């Protein structure tokens, strides 16, 4: 049995996600833009992954890192968006206790993994432009494997306590999550216990992981810009800036959307509750949809690989 919102005598076995509290009668209309965005995100990333897998010229470290990014995007999309659409279409609000904390674990772990991947890609571009002679000996397939292991274990160890701290709480006050996602604080607020440790750990872990990544990424691009400005050849400088431009655009978009979500969430009652919820949903859709498209358009090798893949399918 599911605990009702007014009961406090039964232990919670499942939660109800109502998505947008103030838009219960109209929120289903949001499925109109969300559905094509999901199809675009999944389709574009799957095409990119297939192109990298089948095209021998794309079997290089830089493209392997891009494949890691696409794989993370697909996992994040499938973890969050289908459930939201089921709520909009079929009013499937219930989510099991285990399913909720599994979703929380995936979100809290894979989102920082994406940030770490951007960091490794920035380092790749730094070596390629600032130390081109050493690039083949530094950025190797072994480097990508080690980077992937680093990304997994660093973020897994740092974010695993978040769902564990939330799951250990005693949920006896209610089971209605006023969110589309099993976000840590949205769920923890339903408990009867003290959640100050949950809030503190999430704050520290998010800023330590994403904050350090962002600082190191910006530092890498400062060195890159300094090196590009020293290039004697205008053509070489333009090519270098073009190569890094798409990377930097996506990175800044990823962090800008995330920072806006964090600050609107902290603003509390000054911002309507629906705004941070919508930003959180869009952060799981727009970057995954944009990443493969921007890289595909701005990188000639990927564009050729995708065109060859599409011709092969015909």
UniProtKB/TrEMBL annotation:
GO BP terms in the entry: cellular response to lipid
* Cellular component terms per the entry's GO annotation: plasma membrane
Q: How does it sit in the membrane?
A: Multi-pass membrane protein
Q: Where are the transmembrane segments?
A: 30-52, 64-89, 206-228, 240-263
Keywords (alphabetical) are: G-protein coupled receptor, Membrane, Olfaction, Receptor, Sensory transduction, Transducer, Transmembrane, Transmembrane helix
GO MF annotation terms: G protein-coupled receptor activity; olfactory receptor activity
Residue ranges constituting the G-protein coupled receptors family 1 profile domain according to the UniProt record: 44-295
Q: Where's it mainly located?
A: membrane
Q: Does the keyword Disulfide bond apply?
A: no
> Where does this protein have coiled-coil stretches?
none
Q: Where in the cell is it found?
A: Membrane
Q: What is this protein called?
A: G-protein coupled receptors family 1 profile domain-containing protein
Taxonomic path: Eukaryota, Metazoa, Chordata, Craniata, Vertebrata
Gene name of the encoded protein: LOC100916020
């Amino acid at each position: 049995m599911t605990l009702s919102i007014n009961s406090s005598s039964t232990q919670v076995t499942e939660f109800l996600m109502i998505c947008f509290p103030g838009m219960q009668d109209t929120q289903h209309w949001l499925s109109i833009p969300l559905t094509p965005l999901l199809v675009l995100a999944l389709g574009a990333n799957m095409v990119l992954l297939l192109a990298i897998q089948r095209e021998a010229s794309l079997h290089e470290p830089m493209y392997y890192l891009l494949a890691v990014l696409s794989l993370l995007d697909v996992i994040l999309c499938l973890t969050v968006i289908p459930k939201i659409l089921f709520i909009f279409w079929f009013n499937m609000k219930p989510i099991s206790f285990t399913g909720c904390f599994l979703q929380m674990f995936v979100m809290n772990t894979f989102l920082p993994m994406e940030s770490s991947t951007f960091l490794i890609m920035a380092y790749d571009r730094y070596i390629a432009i600032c130390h081109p002679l050493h690039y083949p000996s530094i950025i190797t397939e072994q480097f990508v494997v080690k980077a992937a292991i680093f990304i997994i274990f660093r973020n897994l160890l740092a974010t695993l306590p978040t769902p564990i701290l939330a799951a250990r709480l005693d949920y006896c006050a209610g089971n209605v999550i006023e969110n589309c996602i099993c976000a840590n604080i949205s769920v923890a607020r339903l408990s009867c216990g003290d959640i100050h440790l949950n809030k503190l750990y999430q704050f520290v872990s998010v800023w330590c992981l994403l904050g350090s990544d962002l600082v190191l990424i910006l530092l890498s691009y400062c060195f890159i810009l300094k090196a590009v400005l020293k290039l004697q050849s205008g053509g070489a400088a333009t090519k270098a800036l073009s190569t890094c431009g798409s990377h930097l655009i996506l990175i800044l978009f990823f962090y800008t959307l995330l920072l806006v979500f964090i600050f609107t969430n902290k603003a509390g009652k000054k911002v309507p509750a629906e705004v941070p919820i919508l930003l959180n949903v869009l952060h799981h859709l727009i970057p995954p949809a944009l990443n493969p498209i921007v890289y595909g358009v701005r990188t000639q090798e990927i564009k050729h690989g995708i065109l060859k893949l599409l011709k092969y399918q015909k």
